[in-house]
């Protein structure tokens, strides 16, 4: 039966706005900061291949499922899950899926904001001309100086959280459209300029080969690649679900999901092609970890024509991209507080902001005072500090688990009448989607999990 529910939070004005907002959520630090460094740490080629396969076979179908569930429920993910579970005659326990997403959103934003703070601080570093003619040692020094200073990190983390709260308090829709409409093409242009610089380093093909020539990968590497497919597309925690709840009735979810996934993947691959040639041209290590882009791109900006200007613009845009992702991380929680606690958006954002900010202090300290405080969980990970642990638990466990449950709910528990009606796509595409979400996604996620804990060995 067709659902006629309306969202109390309003609706996107049209399809394009939804695509822009969801792309704004998807494209962020995950593409430009995280993808290159985890690809570097996990050996390149095969990692990238697994990631691309996961985007195609898991990411796009889950994005369709999440958007579809959101549009059908038309509320915050918590209330959407509880309404749909009731309507479909399923256990009220499904509301937990919404809750898990809210928790994942808090956890992710707490460290996301710290890294976004690095990007903000690099706007000023680059703008001041600090990277003109810089050497490898020089960039390393500037980076280390920043991350080993907890007060500076805390200040930038605070600034970023305040920026995020202001937008969330005003309502996600105001301003987002304009920001993203300008941001995406501009970011693309600057990335292309950096790729063009990388072509002049004489090591371009080495970088490309690193990214695209299959080699070996560990079971952990497969988990990280799959987790990243969820992280980069903002899936598995309700961000896309809540954006889907503002989607007009007749928009094609299939088309929108494919466009968003292609844009997101394109940005990540371009970032990789900009960064790895610089890595090899300067004798750097691909596996240096979270500092990778901050230790490579400034070298490009320090040596290219008009590099100070281009570099400053680049870090401004990166901060913007992080901003449009950050707001989607807490929209599910804010929407719930407004619906259930009758709070206005301003209060809701301030409370969530304070909570997330405090948690972020743990990540601030992970790069300096607490960097030696690490722990291991048998079968799962070894020697991770606070920041690495949060990243691992959210991106590699919570998001795929959320995705797994979304797949089970959409394909096994919702009636085909409901999903067919809401997706409103042609028969052939519906069949493929249903098959992928019913079998491929759950099986793939379960196999990767079992492989990591050593129950099976791939
Ligand atoms: N997709 C964002 C990125 O790649 O930076 C991060 C993110 C946003 C993850 C929203 C999850 C989410 F719900």
Topology overview:
Layout: H1 15-26, H2 29-41, H3 45-73, H4 77-87, H5 95-127, H6 136-147, H7 150-170, H8 176-199, H9 204-212, H10 219-232, H11 239-244, H12 253-281, H13 292-303, H14 307-341, H15 345-366, E1 375-377, E2 381-384, H16 386-413, H17 416-423, H18 427-452
Antiparallel strand pairs: 1-2
Bound molecules: 4-fluoro-L-phenylalanine.
4-fluoro-L-phenylalanine (PFF) binds next to helix 1, helix 2, helix 10 and helix 14.
Describe it for me?
With 458 residues, the protein is mostly helical. The protein has one domain: Amino acid/polyamine transporter I (Up-down Bundle), CATH 1.20.1740. It is 75% helix and 2% strand. The protein is built from 18 helices and two strands. It has helices at residues 15-26, 29-41, 45-73, 77-87, 95-127, 136-147, 150-170, 176-199, 204-212, 219-232, 239-244, 253-281, 292-303, 307-341, 345-366, 386-413, 416-423, 427-452, and strands at residues 375-377, 381-384. The protein has a two-stranded antiparallel ribbon with strand order 1-2. A hairpin with a 3-residue loop joins strand 1 (375-377) and strand 2 (381-384). 4-fluoro-L-phenylalanine binds at residues 25-26, 28-31, 108, 231-232, 234, 237, 239, 325, 328-329.
Strand residues, percent: under 5%
Kindly give the count of domains. Answer: 1
Largest sheet geometry: 2 strands, antiparallel
Largest sheet strand order: 1-2
The secondary-structure element order is HHHHHHHHHHHHHHHEEHHH
Topology-level CATH name: Amino acid/polyamine transporter I
> How far from one another are the termini?
43 Å
Provide the CATH top-level class: Mainly Alpha
Low-confidence stretches: none
Overall pLDDT: 93
Number of helices: 18
Amount of helix: over 70%
Radius of gyration: 21 Å
The ligands bound in this entry are:
4-fluoro-L-phenylalanine
Number of E strands: 2
What coarse outline follows from CA principal-axis ratios?
globular
SS-based class: mainly alpha
| CATH architecture assignment | Up-down Bundle
